[in-house]
Amino acid sequence: EGAALATGGSCRGIAVSTLAEARFFAAGGFDDILYAVPVPRWRLAECAELARSLQRFQVLLDSRQGLEMLLQNPLPAGKRWLAWLKLDCGNARAGIRPTDPEALSLARAMAQGSPELVTLVGVYAHCGNTYGCRDIATVQAIARDTTAAVLEFVTS
């Protein structure tokens, strides 16, 4: 119910952190889901099944190996992997640092490589480093820093 309210009833445009959540929402009629964790190889088959069955199942990538994994495991005709580049702007859990020279190279490879197999949707950053914050000003500072880092990356 909460997800339907949050999406205005559209059943589109949600992010999940587990594939169990993705399957739950898919069973409830959601057909545009972002799996907000870089795809581990051992979850690829489950991700592929969701990508085949949903209108839009999107994933995160944060490495050349992840991109190669998707390229080597194409979806059936008429489908392609929809991937976001996951940037680590300070929470140090997942993603590639936007200042890492490989980040721009990876973004270019995703955008220009084989768009019929893997399409770069955009960049994604998560402010998980706000979880331990004790006040609003600190949360806002982290949000500003993350926004600045993403904007600097996408304009470089």
Task: Explain what you see.
- The protein has 156 residues and is of the alpha/beta class.
- The protein has one domain: TIM Barrel.
- The protein has 6 helices and 5 strands; from the N terminus they run αβαβαβαβαβα.
- The protein is globular, with a radius of gyration of 16 Å.
- The protein starts with a helix and ends with a helix.
Number of helices: 6
Structural class: alpha/beta
**Distance from first to last alpha carbon:** 41 Å
The whole-number mean of residue pLDDT values reads 91
Largest sheet: 5 strands, parallel
| Overall morphology | globular
What tags apply to this protein structure?
156 residues; alpha/beta; TIM Barrel; five-stranded parallel sheet; 6 helices; 40% helix; D-serine ammonia-lyase activity; PLP-binding_barrel; DSD1 dehydratase
Compose a concise summary of this entry.
The protein has six helices and five strands, in the order αβαβαβαβαβα.
Strand and helix layout:
Elements: H1 2-6, E1 14-16, H2 19-27, E2 32-38, H3 44-53, E3 56-61, H4 64-71, E4 81-87, H5 101-112, E5 118-125, H6 136-154
Parallel strand pairs: 1-2, 2-3, 3-4, 4-5
